[in-house]
Every structure is written in C-alpha cells, then in structure tokens.
What we know:
By secondary structure, the protein is α/β, with parallel strands linked by helices. It is built from 10 helices and 7 strands. The chain has a 7-stranded mixed β-sheet with strand order 3-2-1-4-6-5-7, sandwiched between helices. α5 packs parallel to α8 (210-228), α8 crosses α9 (230-253) and α9 (230-253) runs antiparallel to α10. The longest helix has 32 residues, at 264-295. The radius of gyration is 23 Å and the shape is elongated.
Amino acid sequence: MGIPMDNRTLIVIPAYNEELTIGSVVALAKKYGDVLVVDDGSFDRTSEIAKEVGAIVIRHERNVGKGQALKTGFEYALSRGYDFVVTLDADGQHNPDEIPLLLEPTIKGEADLVIGSRYLNESKKKIPVYRRFGLWVLNKGTKVVAGVDVDSQSGFRAINRKALEKLNLNSIDYSVETDMIVKAREEGLKIKEVPISVRYDVPKKHKKNPVSHGLSVLASILSFIGYKRPLLLFGSLSMISFIVAGILGYLALEPYYRGENVYLTQAIGAGIFVIIGIQLFIAGLMLNVLAKMVRE
C-alpha cells in the first residue's frame, strides 16, 4: 500500500546508544515519512549518525527513559502539525518496510492506535521461551486493566493525531506501551493489531536486564490495576494471605492431632496472615468505592 502524500507522517525512533543500527533503521524509514530520532542521553555516536542519514534529532542531555523519549516525539509531532506518528525501536528488531501495514488502518479511519503484533503470524515462534513467558504475563496483566488482549509491549505502532491529542501519558520508562493502551481505552479510542515480523538477532539485544525490565513493567501494570480495579487487586492479595494463613494453621495444628504440642510460631504466623487478609480486603472495598466516586 502507498501512503497518500497529503498525509504528513512522522516516524519517531527513541534511541539510547544505538550507533550500530540507527543508520540503517533511519535510512529504511525515510521512505515513509519524516524521521525524528529522540536520542535519550546516548554517549556514543547515535545522534551524529542519525543526522548524517537525514533524521531530525532531538537529544536529551541525560537518559530519562523510553516513555519520556516518546512524549518528546509526540509533542514535536503535535507542534508541527503531523497527521500520523509511527513509533519503532532503534535496535533493528522492527522492519521499517512494514510501516505502511500499520498506517493503513489509521489512514482509512479504522483505528486510532495500531499495534504491530508478533502473535498474528510466524514471528511468535521466534520469541525466546523466557521472553514469551514474560510477555504472556504482561499481556494478561494489561488485559485485566484495559480489557483488551493485544501484544501490549510491542513498540512498533501507528497513531493518528486524534489519539496524540488525547493521550496524556504519565510513564517515562518502558511501561509507556501499557500506559498508552490504558489511556486509549479510557478515551474510547479504536485499537487494532496488524501482524509484523520481528528479529532477535540484533547487535544489542538488551540495554537493560530482561528480568528487572519485566518486573518494572509488571509493577507498573499492577499499579494500573490498583487504580482501575482496586477490589480485584486487593481481593486477590487478601485471598493469598488467607491461603497462607490456612497452610500455617494446618502446620500449627497437625502435631496436636498426633498428641503433641501445637507449633506456636506457625499459629502466630497464621493469625498474622488472617489479619493481613482482612485488612487487604477492607482496603480493596474502600478503594473501590473511592474509585467509583472519582469516575462519577
């Protein structure tokens, strides 16, 4: 599909120390619109190379996070009157030649936010097993809070101007992808997925430890759940506390049925977890009422 020339498209590429790949990514993306590289405090030649191949470059003086880099790009797009924005990673995982696939639903008015999904074609088989499990957890967490089952951590996306004007993103780190979906659902924006290909044999696979990265995003998702559905979150934690209390209670009383003394430590632990469970449930009820009052 060709992109109509009367639609102004900005391709935003957040980058941090990506001198090995930024040149080729920009060169391929330039065919489909203006390219803005937001250099998030790199200390290599990322900015220099991006400029040499024709990208507009905005540089953060220090590394503040992918979310902030995207917000910088979105603010630039709005201030310059662009109709559409495409975001993709700078490490070469995404194929810029698939940009038209993401833009098509936005140009046709079928969607306000289009997400490139690794799960709609054979690309899902290329995802490493440990990453597949982590993504499954994050995707399900996003589904709980946003009510939509998508490739929530994909950074290859297309957004129209309507969505850019409505998305008030708070996240400054990698949780921005989930934040975008949650805010889009809150604003009643149309979300659609299209299949994309993904490469994992890129020169710099991880700029951040994948475990700490995943836990950080999961913590953000849990905070979203706590805000949007507090009774679900605190009710689940309360149930876990009661289960732990039940196990400790069994361990405390089991010797009694054999004619021995009750294990006092386990019994005290069971009582503590019962109290914690009750407090968590009450907190969930109270926060749920407050959340409804705020929404109304």
